[in-house]
Amino acid sequence: MTLALETTDLKVRLRLTDDWFTVCDLSALLPGRGVAALLPDGRQAAVFADRTGRLYAIDNRDPFTGAAVLSRGLTGTHQGRPFVASPLLKQRFDLESGQCLDDEAVRVTAYEVKAV
User: Fold this and answer.
1) Sign, CA torsion 12/25/80/76
2) Closest CA to 10 of 20, 24, 19
3) pLDDT for 56-104, tens place per residue?
4) Which residues of 29-60 are buried (b: 16+ CB within 10 A; e: fewer)?
5) What's the pTM?
6) CB 58 within 8 A of CB 45
7) DSSP 8-class letter at 1
8) Exposed/middle/buried for 111, CB within 10 Å: 0-12, 13-18, 19+?
9) Whole-number Å distance between alpha carbons of 37 and 42
10) Distance CA 106, CA 116 (A)
11) Alpha-carbon distance 112 to 103, whole Å?
């Protein structure tokens, strides 16, 4: 038997400077898995939903390698902070702030995100 994904009209939106930008349908996000979204300026965002339905978005580019791979990383929590670990070198990035948990000098952009 094949189960159909839940359908919804809700869209995931990111705040970019002074406006909101729609990146995907909420139904495209599965807990523990990221989605890469192309932004108008050519950058990419990695968008995540956790098991409680909370949404997160950070820059998709791994600052240690330059590869756009953070959306493919493993998610988890460390001391109550949600993170994604880069699939390449395994550095962890806080999904709320973008701060690298393994190197305090490194940070990626974190976006305000909502479903409407």
Assistant:
1) negative
2) 24
3) 999 999 999 999 999 999 999 999 999 999 999 999 999 999 999 999 9
4) beeeebbbbeeeeeebbbbbbeeeeebbbbbb
5) 0.90
6) yes
7) -
8) buried
9) 10
10) 31
11) 23
Gap between the Cα atoms of 60 and 34, Å rounded: 10
Looking up tokens 């990695």 gives 46
CA dist., res. 31 & res. 40, Å (int): 26
The per-residue pLDDT for range 34-69, each reduced to its tens digit, is 999 999 999 999 999 999 999 999 999 999 999 999
Cα–Cα distance between 74 and 43 in angstroms, integer? Answer: 21
